[in-house]
Amino acid sequence: KNVDAHQYYLQGRFFENRHSEKSTLEALAAYQHAVELDSGFALAWAGVARTHTWLAGFATEGGQKAFDAHLASARDAISRALAIEPDLPEALYARAWIETNFDFNWTAATQTVKKAMALAPADPNVLIAAANLETALGNTDRAIEIYRKAIELDPVNAQSRSFLAFGLANRKRFAEARAEYARVIELNS
Prior knowledge:
By secondary structure, the protein is an all-alpha fold. It has helices spanning 3-16, 21-37, 42-58, 63-84, 89-101, 106-119, 124-136, 140-153, 158-170, 174-187.
């Protein structure tokens, strides 16, 4: 409904897909501008959630206090997005990420992933969430299959290739993992 908010959202997507701390902070700023302009923009709230989740998992600054703040902000943004649009796969992806990687709530994560997969079976990010859950459950071979499907849908997604490489290394398929990591670096150094 708000063209400027949509522009900020698109900028956020661009920066978020670069998967670095600096670009994630740029994405967060863009998404926050979008929700300031349109507080009912569920996709932008999901972007806020995903960036805070990424920062909780990978940021190098701030220690426990920053981790707690990012995780709380992610949870809040997920709630806002799902209050606006209860079946938003992008917000469900963020919720599944938290349930899998921070809450270790496999039952809740399984339900969230199932719902997201039913709504968006061809969304590479939803597939990544499903594969990450399989990895957490110890089903690495199944996770590798799902990561490969995500890559088929989005061959230039460095994140899905990185997770695939990790899964291959985990299964001691080192030559395949090395080749995949080289592709990751080529896509996003």
